[in-house]
Structure formats: C-alpha cells, structure tokens
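Lab notebook, bench 4. Continuing the backlog of folding jobs that were queued last week. Each job is logged with the same field layout so the records can be merged later without manual cleanup. Today's entry covers Cytochrome P450, a 401-residue chain. Filled in by technician R.K.

JOB TYPE: sequence-to-structure
TARGET: Cytochrome P450
LENGTH: 401
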Amino acid sequence: MAQPVTQEQLIQDPHPIYAKLREDAPVSPMQMMTFSGRGWVVTGYAEAREAFTHPALSRDGNKYFGALDTGLDERVRAAMNHHMLNSDPPDHTRLRRMVVKVFTARRIAALAPRITEIATELLDAVKPGEPVDIIDAFGFPLPIRVICELLGIPSRDQDAFREWSNVIVAGAFAGDKLPVAAKAMTDYIHELLARKRTNPADDLLSDLIAVRDEGDALTEDELTSMVFLLLIAGHETTVNLIGNGLYLLLTHPDQLDRLRADRDLVPSAIEEVLRYEGPLRSALPRFATADLELGGVTISHGDIVMISPLAANRDSDRFDDAETFDVGRGHTQHVAFGHGLHFCLGAPLARLEGKIALELILERFGTLELATELDQLVWRPSGLMRGLAALPVSVTLAASR
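JOB STATUS: finished
OUTPUT FIELD FOLLOWS
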C-alpha cells in the first residue's frame, strides 16, 4: 500500500506527486486544511485551462468564504477579500477596470529605467566573494520597491510588510501567526489610506481613493482589499520568479552557459522559468455553483476546486520533454499566470522585472555559484506560492567590470 503524502513532501518536492496525480487522474480528490467539504485538485494542462474558464466554477469568495475556516476576524477578512480575484462579473469587471490602465504594456514599459536603477543599486551592494542570500539582498527588495513606488507606499515600511506577507502567503501553515499578521496589515492599510486622504499624491492609491470618495461603486472594503491584493500579488510572484529562476540556472549550469553565450535568450528563459518552476503553486479556490464534469469526474455543487499551474505546466501531453528545463523553449502558452478572466493583471510587470534582473546579473557577475548544499535549500510553506525561503550564492565580477 502506498504511503500517504505528507504536507512536507508536497511543499518541498511536489513534482513527483503531481506527476503521479496527473497519471492517475488529472482531476483528483483532495482534503484541504481549511475546508470540511469535498475538494479537488486539477493537475492536467487541458483540465486546468477548462477549469479556469468554466462558467460553473465561481471565484466569488465573498459568497463562499463561509465554507473556509480561515480563522480570521470577520472585519479583517472583509477588509482583505473584497477584491477582483474573489469576484465574478459584473463586480470583477468593475474592479479590474479601476486598475487595468496602470498595467498596460505601454505603462509598464515606461517603468524599465526605474526598475533598472533600483536593480543596479541593489546589485552594487552585493560583495563578490562573500556568500549572500540573493533573495534577501535582491529578489525581494526589487519588486517590493517597485510596487511601493507605483502605489505610493513609503519604502521604510517594506520590512514590516515582508514579515506580514510571508505569514499571509503561508496561510494555514502559519497557524496562530496568521490572524495577527492579517490584522496588522489591514490596520496598516487603513492608516495608509487615511494619510493619503489628507495628503494625496501622484500615485495609484491616491487615484483609487479619489474614485472611492467621488462616489463611484467602490466600497471601503473593496478599496482596502484592492490595496491588499496589489501589495501581495504585486511583489510575491516576482520574488519567486527571480529566486526560482536563479535556482534553476544554478542547478542547470549548461543552461546558464547558454544564456551567457546568447543574451537574446533571456525572454525565453523567463518563460521557461514560469513554466518549469513557476511562482504559483495553486490558484485561489473555485467553488462549484452546479454539478459539472471535469477531467472525467463529476464535481458536485458546493465542492471546492484548486487548480495547480505548477502541475499543469509539466503535463507531457502538452509540453515536449516537459521535465526538461530548456531556456530556448520560448513562450509555450503556460498557465503560470492563470488563464481567462482572472489572468494575472501584473504579468507584464513581473516579466519585465524578471528580464531586467536576469540581464543585469548576467552582465555583472562572471561566476554565480550556490553557497550551500542543495539539500539545505528550503521551500516556503504555502498552499499558493512556490518559492525558496533563501538562496545563498557566491559571485565574482565579470572581467569587463
């Protein structure tokens, strides 16, 4: 008899588990930590794309969150969860419209010089020959500074925010720390919005407050939840994209050599990182509003469905040599950023930050090596995110520097 899978195995080494699930059934029953009803995990690529757009799978978490035991105070939960990822049309359409103009390709491209400036400043502080946690020194501060500047949040608050974010992303794995961190962060957002009302500036938060206070259809909980979402989603995926990308290159030195020899492969490499070891383990839950068929199984009304982009992106029915990390593979229609209505609004920003980060690291450092044993690396406990807790490296400067 097969041994049951532990949470530790699923966090630290999920790919063999997902491969077995895909082989047995691309839509498999699962027991969630915070849900007493019947749950399902989607690991197949075709099934994931179908589930992302299925009309009977709702993202209206505000209607169905009562089924999830989050352990949060109702006021805190309301201030966190009334955002566009927890809504269906027409609310989703209305909420997304308020921020979509900030994340257009043109607006994001205009951020490139500032992203480069921040990344350069951070890499200037990395001392050759001394082991450094590249996530702590570079992977985290780059996207958090970018999103804080975009929203209009003081950079001095980023350390506290990182602590809260780590706990919130861990979710049920955080235990008693979750309610404390969630309340601290929502309190912070309320105080921040109060300051912005008194002293508005040329930033996204001031714009959102103006929309709210001018009487548009945006509730106070929707405003605080929008800030919460933009802060968390605006940096977590990019932290993991950068960290996972460097981890893959360190553990696949032949692919690192390919990139050094051909820098034009960097955009392709970013897409392959997203496919092979993407930043999102699982999308937010979907709730069945009617009985439906998916992947050959019947999902009943009231069931919860978790779609795993991490698993779907290694489906050999969709990707040739799916278990091979190939920086020359190019764009493959992976689902690392989701699919359909809830496709990640910040995907262009994450891609740009990842591209600039990788290009600068290749340009600056002649060697990049892991500064610890491979089995000492630890993946962060989270049901949603896939990222390393730390990535110690040692570097030397490129000969041209």
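OBSERVATION: The chain is about 50% helix and 10% strand.
SIGNED: R.K.
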